[in-house]
């Protein structure tokens, strides 16, 4: 817009966040997620921080709280489901999956073994 960077206030940023929250997401049906809005504000915060350092003003985005994101419940396989998967998988993958299911190793950690 026409507002000089040094004159942007916390109110401007909060108003922008409200407007962004009204935007449609990729599918066109839902609005943008809190995660997407937070990423946009993080980018703005970084840009304003650089400008504030260079031109000597206080970053108005510095203390704006992030939107809360919905937690996704992770439903692990039951022991019966795990046994079924292990019993039906190809033999050459069986040991890999047993280690994967019962150790909690991350993919990169397991592949590093």
TrEMBL record:
GO MF annotations, alphabetized: DNA binding
Keyword DNA-binding in record: yes
InterPro entries: DNA_brk_join_enz, Integrase_recombinase_N
SUPFAM superfamilies: DNA breaking-rejoining enzymes (SSF56349)
Gene3D superfamilies in alphabetical order: 1.10.150.130
Keyword terms of this UniProt record: DNA-binding
Keyword DNA-binding: yes
Name this polypeptide is given: Phage integrase family protein
Organism the protein comes from: mine drainage metagenome
